[in-house]
């Protein structure tokens, strides 16, 4: 039996595909692209072949119309050709060679990091009715960068909570053994509004460049979910309310620092990104100001002098605020240097002067250097009696984790997943250290222990001290008994 006489197998699926391709040439081209792209990389083709395809069904435009409607609802509006967007993963238009490159990068841990909260909120906002209040509120929340704002508010609240309670505010003097909770409310709400204003102004100044980067091209101004006038109104209202809340609810020094942060972030850091790599240091300076705000808010309640900025920021008791500010300043380098590494080429193409592409080796050294600096800063918090000895152990563990990842990031120059490892270490590092500082506040657990043992509140805070006053101008030696804070 010759080869030509062999019976041919009949496949019903192949026949139906052939009929479908004959009636729709575009579908045939798509199928061939799928075949040479490792059979299954294209989401559109997957959707087409999930159910049996009949010839008369393929010829109708119904399926295509449904796909087009779904795409317009979940993707940003088209951007001019002068601002090309990188091909999204699993996109039907992704060429095979780019797909192979992307999969190789993902295998090496070099894939771009997940989108930020602003991008996710923009997608959610686009699914809501255009004139609804929910869409407006969701868009405004997206402008404020909620995750970043939350971390900033956490640092301010931490500084406020671990401020050493002076004898003036002890329960024998006042009705409350701690600082004012109402002041804390004004501090956190005012700081959050100032952050929202600064972040909205940042987006307002660079939508053209945000459209060129994968992490930012889904932001509300790029997608057209809100106009520039609307974003400016939101930023202005948030800024005025934020600074006003800090002025009337906290003190003028904290209000000045909140307004200064808006100016530095939107007016200095944002334009400087296209001028010099020093923009990262300016951004780190902006991040170090919120802990000073929290510290100055607490110090203002126990000021013995005029309560001016010199006393709140540069007195002997202000060292804790500056240590926390230094911790935030140092933390931002391992965080941002690892965050920017997977998208270094996008920064370069968009014209941002970032150390990650101008000097990649130095980018890793800087991240490692400032990660190591977190150790002495945490030791300083214990040395100056801000936290107890337990903070040395717990903070050293989380600092060691970030230093280890920073060392891998420097040695491997960001490859083999080292950038992703340092990024996630830095994401967890900041909130964990802030919470540990609050849990290890000096004197916190001593007070809990005394309460468990049944000691009275007055005995916990005060003890009797005998003071001998020497003879002076004919007066005999006498003894004075006074109550002073316990352990002083």
Automatic annotation (TrEMBL):
It is a multi-pass membrane protein. This is Protoheme IX farnesyltransferase, mitochondrial. The chain crosses the membrane at residues 148-169, 181-205, 226-248, 254-271, 278-300, 312-331, 367-384. PROSITE patterns: UBIA. Gene3D superfamilies: UbiA prenyltransferase. GO terms for molecular function: protoheme IX farnesyltransferase activity. Belongs to the ubiA prenyltransferase family. It comes from Lepraria neglecta. It is found in: Mitochondrion membrane.
């Amino acid at each position: 039996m010759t080869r030509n006489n062999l019976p041919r197998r009949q496949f019903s699926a192949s026949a139906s595909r052939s009929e479908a391709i004959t009636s729709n040439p575009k579908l045939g081209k798509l199928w061939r692209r799928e075949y040479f792209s490792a059979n299954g990389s294209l989401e559109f083709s997957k959707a087409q072949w999930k159910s049996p395809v009949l010839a008369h069904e393929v010829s109708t435009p119904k399926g295509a119309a449904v796909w087009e409607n779904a795409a317009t609802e979940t993707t940003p509006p088209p951007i001019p050709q002068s601002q090309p967007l990188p091909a999204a993963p699993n996109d039907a238009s992704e060429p095979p060679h780019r797909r192979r490159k992307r999969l190789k990068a993902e295998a090496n841990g070099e894939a771009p990091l997940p989108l930020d909260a602003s991008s996710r909120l923009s997608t959610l906002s686009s699914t809501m009715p255009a004139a609804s209040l929910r869409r407006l509120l969701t868009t405004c929340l997206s402008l404020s960068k909620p995750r970043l704002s939350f971390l900033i508010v956490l640092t301010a609240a931490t500084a406020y909570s671990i401020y050493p309670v002076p004898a003036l505010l002890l329960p024998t003097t006042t009705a409350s053994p701690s600082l004012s909770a109402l002041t804390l409310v004004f501090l956190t709400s005012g700081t959050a509004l100032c952050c929202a204003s600064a972040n909205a102004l940042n987006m307002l100044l660079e939508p053209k460049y945000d459209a060129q980067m994968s992490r930012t091209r889904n932001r509300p101004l790029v997608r057209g979910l809100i106009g520039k006038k609307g974003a400016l109104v939101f930023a202005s209202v948030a800024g005025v309310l934020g600074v006003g809340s800090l002025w009337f609810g906290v003190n003028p020094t904290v209000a000045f620092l909140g307004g200064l942060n808006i100016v530095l972030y939107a007016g200095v850091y944002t334009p400087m990104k296209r001028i010099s790599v020093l923009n990262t240091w300016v951004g780190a300076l902006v991040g170090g100001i919120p802990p000073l705000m929290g510290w100055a808010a607490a110090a203002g309640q126990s000021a013995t002098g005029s309560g001016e900025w010199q006393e709140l920021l540069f007195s002997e008791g202000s060292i804790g605020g500056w240590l926390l500010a230094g911790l935030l300043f140092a933390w931002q380098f391992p965080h941002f240097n690892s965050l920017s590494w997977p998208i270094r080429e996008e920064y370069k193409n968009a014209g941002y002067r970032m150390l990650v592409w101008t000097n990649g080796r130095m980018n890793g050294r800087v991240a490692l250097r400032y990660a190591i600096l977190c150790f002495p800063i945490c030791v300083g918090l214990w040395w100056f009696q801000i936290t107890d000895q337990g903070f040395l152990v717990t903070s050293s563990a989380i600092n060691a984790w970030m230093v280890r990842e920073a060392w891998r990031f420097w040695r491997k120059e960001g490859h083999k997943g080292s950038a992703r490892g340092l990024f996630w270490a830095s994401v967890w590092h900041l909130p964990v250290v802030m919470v540990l500082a609050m849990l290890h506040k000096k004197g916190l657990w001593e007070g809990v222990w005394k309460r468990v043992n049944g000691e009275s509140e007055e005995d916990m805070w005060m003890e009797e001290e005998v003071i001998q006053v020497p003879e002076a101008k004919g007066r005999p030696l006498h003894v004075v008994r006074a109550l002073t804070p316990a352990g002083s």
